[in-house]
Amino acid sequence: TNNAFYASLVIENPCEPPTTLFISPIMVSDKPNPVMISPTNVCVNTSVNFSHTGEYGELASTTTCSSNGKQVWTVSPEIGFTPNNVANLGNLNNSNLNAGNWTNGAVNLNGTFTQTGTYRFKLYMSNSLCGVDSIEKVICVQEPPTSEFTLDKHSICTNNNVKTTNTSKKSACTNNTYNWNVQYQDTENCGGSAGYSFANGTSASSENPEFTFTTPGKYTITLRTSPNAQGCTPVTSSQEVFVKAPPKVTIPTFTGVCAGNTISPTATVVNCYSTTTPTYSWTFGGGTPASSSD
């Protein structure tokens, strides 16, 4: 017989010729093998696709081998997940182990999570000969990420450190990935080129890095928060640090002044990112007055 095994039994004794018995056909079929493809972590209000790439199992008959069966999807809790088509779930009809009572679901399922939390998706598969098997996956649904941080100082002198404190919302499902970037501007022409480094063993991917600044200028620190979850978009936020230097002063050059005449020199001062008003102290050697704070 095609697609079958058989067993034979030979019985003999010294007094009789051998007798052969056959057990045939013995047809062996496969159990279903459910395999679910789905994300593990997703953002709320994200559309998600579930599919199964498993097999119903080969069903042997005297004429052929076929593969067919049923599948049903279940989700717990049901509130918080909205399938695009409810019928695609199928229904066990309170009969987990008797597929004859099932309402068949779709091979692929898609829908949207509208509430955060932990969901258990289960895929049941069956065929007509070898029963039921199932597979379960846990899906974690989280809020969208935030990017927030504070600085212990916003204005410093060169060769000083600035510490960050990352206050971004923690992911309920998995660890966020952080990336820190620093942009430099020298609008007052006091520095020339960027001068900063990560300090005390921190790096661009640290949760709370520390920076050392060696060149005066305006530095913009940007934090990019990236969650490891489907449907979540990375977000950024920025803060500024002003690194001060001694002011730059230029005064006009006088080629000569006749005795008894007056002069009124004017200084051009670049404050080099200091937020305080500069003070002045003039000294006029041999002049009257000998000094001035104007």
Count every helix, treating DSSP H or I runs of 4 or more residues as helices. 0
Sequence of secondary-structure elements = EEEEEEEEEEEEEEEEEEEEEEEE
Give helix % range: under 10%
Biggest sheet details: 4 strands, antiparallel
Strand order in the largest sheet: 3-5-10-9
Task: Give average pLDDT, whole number.
Answer: 88
Basic shape: rod-shaped
For the termini, the CA-CA separation is 115 Å
The percentage of residues in β strands lies in over 45%
The Rg value, from CA coordinates, equals 39 Å
Overall number of strands = 24
- Low-pLDDT windows of residues: none
Secondary-structure-derived class: mainly beta
Structural account:
- It is a single chain.
- With 294 residues, the chain is mainly β.
- It contains no helices and 24 strands.
- The strands form eight sheets. The chain has a four-stranded antiparallel beta sheet with strand order 3-5-10-9, with no helix packed on it. A four-stranded mixed beta sheet has the order 4-12-11-8, with no helix packed on it.
- A hairpin with a 4-residue loop joins strand 6 and strand 7.
- The radius of gyration is 39 Å and the shape is rod-shaped.
- It starts with a strand and ends with a strand.
